[in-house]
Amino acid sequence: MATGYAELLKTRHAARLLTGTLVGRLPNATAALAVVLFVRAEGGSYALAGVLSAVYGVCNAIGQPLLGRAVDLYGQPRVMLPASVLSALGMALLAAVGLDPLWAACAAMVVAGFFTPPLEGGLRALWPGVLRRPDQVHAAYALDAVAQEVMFAVGPLLVTLCVAAWSAGGALLVINAIGVLGALSVVVSEPSRQWRSEPREAHWLGALRSPGLLVLIGAFFFVGLALGSIAVAAVAYADEHGGGMVSSWLLSALGVGALIGGIVYGAREWPGRPEGRLRLLIGLLALGYLPLALAPGVAGMTALTGVAGLFLAPALACAFVVVDRHAPNGTVTEAFSWLVTTFGVGSAVGNSVVGPAVEGGGSAAGFAVAGAGGIAALLVLLSTKRFLGDPVQPKAGAAPAENDRNGAVEPGFRAGRQA
């Protein structure tokens, strides 16, 4: 298992691209915490912190697919680096002006959120051209999902250390400066500079004209909703069981489960079509969420959350493969960005809807929302099998089908550096 990942990371440019992308995404991964800490340090309320974070999140959701489309049209360096700099300047503006005037703080959040570079989608567009074999690309998607779990665990710690060592405003500056350096590392690399999207058909819907992608967006909205509800329900559970570090144990167990699941999943090549495998993985993910509503003692609950996390990274990795197969020509970065955006929006919705459930029925009701989200994601995939079937194969001598850029069979990865 370790040998396969080591071989992958030894491939030229692979480790650099993965590391640069993770570092470049650090500002986005820590934005919610960093903004809350800054607003509180400036004397603002939690309500104001929530408003500014929501402005950032909404603008990020709008900007990611639009910037992804721009990357597909104009290449990575021309979009990624300017966007990263503008996003960092937005956070720097917030650190400089504080909360007065409020319109300036909101404007800073609009800029920072909208111009967050779509590094995640960009990396997945680069993998097929960087790695030697399709099974390595599959493993890279899994490793990518695993590395994100590590980043989301380390990022908040780094923000907290920066606040303790300097200030909340200083943390905004440091984290975003690091993010720019990460983006710079990616866009000056040879694969990023040479990558070109395939010619695309002019269409205002872009990647969204793919029925398969729309199905994925619908399913992963509910997966995001489930995860967002777990985050809030874990805090409520901790309040019911003595507070302290209980919520951190649950969320850490969830992350460790995802880490283990992703490593195991990416260590081998799986038989069959990824569309069918995705339905199975989402079914297992939903099955893992349902027992959380039992809300047993702390030790049992920690074990349950660990099991619930096992299939998250594999489901994400498999979804990346399916996106790669179904995105229309010349829209792969935009397609990946849509999936990332929808997942984030679903998580935000989960944060919101679980509150009334917790107030009415305690943490068990909150975890039941997560189970319902998992079931809803599975139902979306099962009820739309005809839209998320195998990409249509062209006849002999014909041009590749729109939703399978190589006209290739499983695993459907492209050759060369194009996306």
Automatic annotation (TrEMBL):
Source organism, top-level taxon: Bacteria
GO cellular component assignments: plasma membrane
Molecular-function annotations in GO: transmembrane transporter activity
Keyword Signal: no
Entry keyword set: Membrane, Transmembrane, Transmembrane helix
Annotated stretches, region: Disordered: 393-419
Domain annotation Major facilitator superfamily (MFS) profile: ranges: 212-419
Record carries keyword Secreted: no
Transmembrane segments: 17-39, 45-67, 79-96, 172-192, 213-237, 249-266, 278-295, 301-323, 335-358, 364-382
Bilayer disposition of the protein: Multi-pass membrane protein
InterPro entries given in the database record: MFS, MFS_dom, MFS_trans_sf
Localization terms from the record: Cell membrane
UniProt cross-references to PANTHER family, sorted A to Z: MAJOR FACILITATOR SUPERFAMILY (MFS) PROFILE DOMAIN-CONTAINING PROTEIN, PTHR23542
Name of the protein described by the UniProt record: MFS transporter
Organism: Streptomyces chattanoogensis
